[in-house]
Sugar ABC transporter permease (Paenibacillus crassostreae), 308 residues
Amino acid sequence: MAKAKELKAYARFKSPGDRVFDTFNIIMMLLLVIVTLYPFINTLAVSLNQANDSLKGGIYLWPREWTLENYKYVLKESSIYQATFISAMRTIIGTVLSVLCCSMVAYTISRPEYVLRKFVSLAFILTMYFNGGLIPNFLLTRELGLIGTFSVYILPGLIGVFNVIVIRSFIEGLPEGILESARIDGAGEFTTFLRVVLPLCLPVIATVSLFTAVAQWNSWFDVFLYNSSYPELSTLQYELMKILQNSGASMNSQDYSSMFSTSNVANQVTPTSIRATMTIVASVPIIMVYPFLQKYFVQGMTIGGVKG
């Protein structure tokens, strides 16, 4: 109540310049919200609109002819459900292990008593600019025996250099006295990391977890490279990509002019409608998770990004 009175008093004594600035900010934020939300709402509308009707254009925020045929077409594939399970497992396991490993590396190179921390940090940063390339990575993965295994989704991405830098910057901002107190109480480095540092890093951990989870969930190229011959290890994104290719091939083999004259026009799908439907299907899990991490995400980006 007192806070609201203070805000009203502050608004009453604003100068004309402050009011103009606030109005400009509000308008810009509204425009940003519209620009951000419109593509998703438009995609949702196309996915819920009758496919052949969507080819005429003019679908903006609301479907013109409602239908669920696009979703039935995508979800009728039995492989979708096994692929969704694999995607969920690689997202959960990959995110947990990657965040844990990145946090341990970040804690190590953040300690001033570690004499090789500058060299190790430089070696990590160089990998952000230079890598062996696609063919050497494939050959290395094959020699390690990871092809045709679930671990090929987890092991190559355990350490993300950008994530290590973000977490290290956050740890370096923690009060040194807290760590010294833990050592005085007899805690070793691993105990200090698990019981002191990790709980304090919850905001940046949530941020990095969101980055990693989105990357794992959306990944399909590694499936194409390493596990395309193993259907039991296929992921949702890869299956949706194959559905899009198949629908595009089948639609290209048809005559669009005769399509509109058939009696089954309501049951047709098009690459455009399938693409929109796939986007919604693949986005829903991440959209459901993000609101729970939003608070920590903002804190992690602002605090963890202060130091370089």
